[in-house]
């Protein structure tokens, strides 16, 4: 190869390396703010039920939990099926050691994003869920892609703690006591 050809290849390699370096960002993203959220609760523990929270999730949009630092023990798994933003304000959502906390699905076959912030997700237990090993994965959060569009849903978690969640003990592809996400577009977990 001529000197000119070698120099051209070297310059091309440098340009490609420089372009790819610009596409990768290790900076912590800014915590998103909710715009005109639906406020659930009156600031007191017990002022929100799982059914009220599920109804807000079914409607979609921004949700602000106003139950102080209280724990809401769920009597059923919360289902997220559309774009939602939840600011827990330091509240805890608990599966009560009996069920998963959140399950994500996409029955509308749409692209959407989920934001969770200022929450503790604890005591989720997926070990006895009905179904295959994937159904028994993700004690706090499960996205079992199934036949839904691949990479259609994104999840961002800011200041979310995953505490004492459990999933299937032994499985080739199952597990994930805290989070099990299959086929997600992205998962961002900050702090």
Please characterize this protein's 3D structure.
The chain is of the alpha/beta class and 191 residues long. The chain has one domain (36-190). Helices cover 16% and strands 33% of the residues. The protein contains two helices and eleven strands. The protein has helices at 3-22, 50-59, and strands at residues 38-40, 61-65, 71-73, 78-80, 84-94, 102-104, 112-122, 141-144, 153-163, 179-182, 186-190. Strands 1, 2, 3, 5, 7, 9 and 11 form a seven-stranded parallel sheet that branches. Helix 2 links the parallel strand 1 and strand 2. The longest helix is centred in the N-terminal third of the chain and has 20 residues, at 3-22. It is globular, with a radius of gyration of 21 Å. It starts with a helix and ends with a strand. Residues 2-21 have low confidence and may be disordered.
Number of domains: 1
Beta-strand portion reads 25-35%
Order of helices and strands: HEHEEEEEEEEEE
What class do helices, strands and sheet pairing give? alpha/beta
CA-based gyration radius: 21 Å
Distance between the termini: 51 Å
- Please tally the helical runs, counting DSSP H or I stretches of 4 or more residues: 2
* Low-confidence parts: 2-21
Major sheet? 7 strands, parallel
Total strands:
11
Any idea what the shape is? globular
Share of helix, binned = 10-25%
Calculate the mean pLDDT score and round it: 83
């Amino acid at each position: 190869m001529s000197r000119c050809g070698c120099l051209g290849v070297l310059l091309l390699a440098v340009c490609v390396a420089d372009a790819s370096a610009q596409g990768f960002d290790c900076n912590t993203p800014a915590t998103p703010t909710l715009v005109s959220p639906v406020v659930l609760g009156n600031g007191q523990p017990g002022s929100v039920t799982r059914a009220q929270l599920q109804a807000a999730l079914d409607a979609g949009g921004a949700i602000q939990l106003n139950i102080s630092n209280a724990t809401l023990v769920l009597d059923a798994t919360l289902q997220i099926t559309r774009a939602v933003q939840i600011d827990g304000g330091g509240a805890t959502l608990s599966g009560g050691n009996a069920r998963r906390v959140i399950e994500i699905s996409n029955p509308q076959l749409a692209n959407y994003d989920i934001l969770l912030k200022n929450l503790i997700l604890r005591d989720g237990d997926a070990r006895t869920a009905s179904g295959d090993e994937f159904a028994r994965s993700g004690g706090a959060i499960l996205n079992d892609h199934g036949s839904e569009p691949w990479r259609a849903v994104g999840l961002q978690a800011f200041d979310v703690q995953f505490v004492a969640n459990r999933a299937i003990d032994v499985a080739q592809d199952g597990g994930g006591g805290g989070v099990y996400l299959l086929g997600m577009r992205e998962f961002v977990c900050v702090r």
